[in-house]
Each structure stands twice: as C-alpha cells, then as structure tokens.
Write a structure and sequence with these properties.
6-stranded antiparallel beta sheet, Jelly Rolls, 142 residues, 2 helices, 4-stranded antiparallel beta sheet, mainly beta, globular
C-alpha cells in the first residue's frame, strides 16, 4: 500500500502547476485565481497522502494574515500538531475526521473550526470527495 500511495502522490503532484518559486512582492490591491497558484503538496505536518494548496496573496507585501484554500485528496491528512498561533479552518466541501485536543468528531460543509495557540489538532479526509477547507491565521512575524 505505501508503494501505491507513493505512485498516486507522484501522479497527483505532477498534474498541479507549481507556485512560482519567488514571485515579487505586490503592494497593490489585486485578484488572484486559484488555477494560477495551485501547488501539489504532501499532507502538512507529516500528514498522509497528497493535497493541493492555494496560497492566496502569499506575495502581498505587508499583509499580516494568511488566507489559504487546501484540498485534501482521498486518504490525505493534516498530521497532528500543536499550534503556535490561533487558526481557523472552514470546511467548504467533503467530509473529514477532526481530532481536537484528543477528541474526535466528523466535520463537513459549513463547519468552522477554531484551534487556539497551544492546542493540538489533526484532520483526515474521509468519504468520496476531496475535503476542501479555507485556512486563516495571522502571519508569523518574519
């Protein structure tokens, strides 16, 4: 099974366009489309499977929030980790299993999840379609 997952990861990652390595910072108001910024990635925080990240406004100068869409594909997960900041997930579509402070529950469209600084959480895609979420948090000071 690990071999199959590795092959699927390679296939999925190869069909998603990479984000430009170092786009110039922008200080203007502007529109970004997800098709232009999509990047295939393994599950964050040592998670399983493959995901597609959409790092909106990653190169916006001085923007102090992160606004990201992430699609967790079949069997993918965000690995369990302890937050170093407050963070919000909002489920757009699909189904998932959330572990928050050791307690598991199912999540789906319309669920908003607040994870606080110092709390642990993980999220795994379940069901027949991608689990698609928005993620919002204050950008760490660089």
């Amino acid at each position: 099974m690990p071999r199959i997952n590795a092959v699927l990861s390679a296939v999925t990652l190869s069909v998603v366009a990479p984000v430009t390595a170092q786009a110039p910072a922008r200080s203007d108001s502007h529109v970004e489309n997800e098709r232009d910024i999509a990047v295939g990635q393994p599950g964050p925080h040592a998670g399983d499977g493959t995901t597609t990240a959409y790092p909106f406004f990653e190169h916006a100068a001085g923007l102090d929030i992160v606004f990201r869409k992430r699609a967790l594909h079949a069997g993918a997960s965000i690995g369990e980790h302890v937050n170093d900041k407050d963070e919000v997930y909002y489920v757009l579509s699909g189904r998932g299993l959330l572990r928050l402070q050791g307690v598991e529950r199912e999540v789906g469209p319309g669920d908003a999840i607040l994870t606080r600084d110092g709390d642990s959480h993980a999220l795994r895609q379940t069901g027949d379609e991608d689990l698609v979420i928005f993620i919002v948090y204050r950008r760490p000071v660089r």
